[in-house]
Amino acid sequence: MLHRPQSTAEALTLLATDSATIIAGGTDIFPAHVDRPPPKRLVDISRLRDLRGVRREANTFRIGAATTWTDIARADLPPSFDMLREAAREIGAVQIQNRATIGGNLCNASPAADGVPPLLALDATVELASPRGVRTMPLDAFLLGNRHTARAPDEIMTAVLIEDDHNHGRSTFLKLGARRHLVISIVMVAALIEISGDGMVERARIAVGSASAVARRLHDLEVRLAGRAANPSIGDVVSPDDFAELSPIDDLRATGAYRREAAIELVRRALVQLADERHG
User: Fold this and answer.
1) CA 126 centroid distance within chain
2) 127, 156 in Cβ contact below 8 A?
3) 229, 236, 179, 115 alpha-carbon torsion, rounded to 10°
4) 43 phi, psi to nearest 5 deg
5) Which of 10, 13, 129, 233 has the highest CB neighbour number within 10 Å of its CB?
6) What pLDDT, in 10s, does the model give residues 69-123?
7) What is the pLDDT of residue 87?
8) What digits encode the pLDDT tens for the residues 59-70?
9) Is the pLDDT of residue 280 over 70?
10) Rounded CA gap, 183 and 177, in Å?
């Protein structure tokens, strides 16, 4: 049975019933049930206007959880969000981008979710609503593992919150796949650097996806990049030791060893690209 609530409150009431499952775009849940029956009760929140759209509230961008990737790709966002818009254009075909939502991407919690590394690099926070009220938590605390999140069964993700505190930031998203388009990532990298007026890195944020059960920030590398000159030699700062906490697996798309080497190369390329943009 499919329900289309008219409000978030109504959706929460429906979710409290036995075996109810939240969907928005449905681009993850329906393929997952192609050879078995779908959940008995589906609660479609895609038409809830208060969960759609991108807007600025003071110094924070609020992205409704039911906002599609097409909406995000077209949103008026600062340069530090370029990596998020670039990732939005890499998620499946255009038809998928028109339906798939940012909240669904996060709640599905695939290790290869393209939206996660940019959001981690932007220090995103998720907002969750339940009959008990509303709570927020950092995205890296929300994502617990492969297909595993901190969302309680009676909660709905209502928004993703991102502070616009990257005043001099520029960013990029690089993805490696078996082909150029319509492919699950072998490895992906999101990188953000802020550059001072004298050409030095003030702050860096780097996340790697599809190389662990959840995407991971490279905190040690971020610390070492601070104070470095933002020029084409910046890639030399990257060391294999920076990737020690990753745990890439062997699967049909690539070996774990290949994923690790690819991640190192993509991070270097991302940093050089961002440095080149300054001199371009």
Assistant:
1) 11
2) no
3) -50
4) -115, 105
5) 129
6) 999 999 999 999 999 999 999 888 888 889 899 999 999 999 999 999 999 999 9
7) 95
8) 999 999 999 999
9) no
10) 6
Superfamily name with CATH number, domain 169-279 = CO dehydrogenase flavoprotein, C-terminal domain (3.30.390.50)
Q: Which of 274, 62, 85 is nearest to 164 (CA)?
A: 62
Asked if residues 117 and 87 have their Cβ atoms less than 8 Å apart, the reply is yes
Residue 249 main-chain phi, psi, to 5 deg: -110, 160
What is 1-46's CATH number? 3.30.43.10
Q: Are 200 and 186 in contact (CB under 8 A)?
A: no
- Please name the amino acid found at residue 210: S
Numbered ranges of CATH 3.30.390.50 in the chain: 169-279
pLDDT tens-digit series, residues 222-260: 999 999 999 999 999 999 999 999 999 888 888 999 999
Q: Provide the whole-model pTM.
A: 0.93
Angstrom distance (rounded) from CA 199 to CA 230: 6
Residue given tokens 């990532």 in the structure block: 185
Instruction: Look up residue 266 and give its two tokens.
Output: 């993509």
Dihedral angle of Cα 209, 215, 216, 217, to the nearest 10 degrees: 70
What is the distance between the alpha carbons of residues 14 and 108, in angstroms, rounded to a whole number? 20
pLDDT, one tens digit per residue, over 162-213 is 998 877 799 999 999 755 555 678 999 999 999 998 999 999 999 999 999 9
